[in-house]
Amino acid sequence: MKVERIALSGFRNYDQECVEFSGATNVIKGENGQGKTNLLEAVYMLTCGRSFRTRLDRELVGFGFSNAEILADTESHGREQTIKIVMTPGQRKQITVNAVKKSASELSGGLNSVLFCPDDLDLVKEGASVRRRLMDTAIGQLRPNYAKLAAEYSRLYDQKSAILRDWREKPSLLETLDDFSARMCAVSARLIRYRAAFVKRLAAAAGPIHREFSGGADELELQYLTVSTVRDPFSPEREIFYDVCEHQEAHRRAEIESGQCLTGAHKDDIAISINGRSARTFGSQGQKRTAALSIKLAEREIFLQETGEYPVLLLDDVLSELDAKRQDYVLNRIGAGQTLITCCEDDGIAKRTGARVLTISGGRLI
Ligand code: ATP
Ligand code: MG
């Protein structure tokens, strides 16, 4: 799986530029604010039609441009694909693959990527939303239906939140509350099954990586956490639905009184433990980082198992955040597959990996 070349026009700080990547490791080098992350962002968009930095397409359009365009030649499973994404403020973005119109969720199944940025190093330390995002972005790429379900859930959540927030001014809003709650329970049940299966696989892949990484000292375990009344997240959807509804009914009054959505898959999390104890509570800074690295590298392995090819690995500014031992571990593990690494200083990364070096300055390749 790889991106062969990408042409950007009016995208972020790229007026007009075309970049060719090597199929192995690429080091994207440049000073701060030159467009390194913007380039990764454009590549990421080819895999899911969305940015990892903003939900608003208009922020992607270059200052002074009326629209932004990404045009890329990619290869996955022996198939060459030309992907084009055009973003025009006030309009829906246009996506085509080999000149055939597609929706963002239809991009999954083609090119995949795993993004790794400094925030991911705080995967263990941060609140649950970071870990939910990991589940959502990974499963969304692997299962086309998941991305649609997650988008539907987020719409229902926004609508139900608005009802709970505004019903005191407009009591008639409460008439539709139960309908929204039931629909959220139904979608939750489906999301829960996908997430439980994914976390199980992630745990199986991350365990051995972490053991190797920590020199056999630490045993990493991951456990999927969801609505407390769900007895078994692997049971049939209908059973999970009933369990989620039970929680919903028990919290109906509290939701109305507090004005907040208190039940559903939007509160899910992954419990991460090292040697049987919560890594978040008891882990050292170094142990938390190692665990985060193991989990991200495991994510890449799952894509390999699932699709038979490594996804494009996007390392945005992470290497500079790691000590020499961890840097080496990551670079040695990358092995096969295409990787794009951004950094301010090369620090011998290119030499160690035989990477192609691309220097970016002011939205241009030099
Ligand atoms: P760092 O090393 O600090 O991470 P970087 O090379 O990754 O830097 P980018 O995040 O890619 O930098 O951003 C480069 C520049 O793009 C910033 O200076 C920012 O002002 C500019 N930029 C962001 N959005 C737009 C836009 N819509 N139009 C034009 N320029 C933009
Ligand atoms: Mg950057």
Automatic annotation (TrEMBL):
In its keyword annotation, does this UniProt entry include Membrane? Answer: no
Q: Which GO terms describe its biological process?
A: DNA replication; DNA synthesis involved in DNA repair; double-strand break repair; SOS response
One Pfam family, please name it: SMC_N
Chain sites annotated for binding ATP: G30, E31, N32, G33, Q34, G35, K36, T37
- What are the UniProt keywords, alphabetically? ATP-binding, Cytoplasm, DNA damage, DNA repair, DNA replication, DNA-binding, Nucleotide-binding, SOS response
What subcellular locations does the record give? Cytoplasm
Write out the GO MF terms: ATP binding; single-stranded DNA binding
Q: Which ranges carry the RecF/RecN/SMC N-terminal domain?
A: 3-341
- Which InterPro entries does the protein's record reference? DNA-binding_RecF, DNA-binding_RecF_CS, P-loop_NTPase, RecF/RecN/SMC_N, RecF_2
UniProt KW DNA damage keyword = yes
Q: Name one GO cellular component term.
A: cytoplasm
**What is stated as this protein's family in its record?**
Belongs to the RecF family.
Q: Which HAMAP family match?
A: RecF
User: What's the stated role of this polypeptide?
Assistant: The RecF protein is involved in DNA metabolism; it is required for DNA replication and normal SOS inducibility. RecF binds preferentially to single-stranded, linear DNA. It also seems to bind ATP.
Specify the protein name: DNA replication and repair protein RecF
Please state the gene responsible for encoding this protein. recF
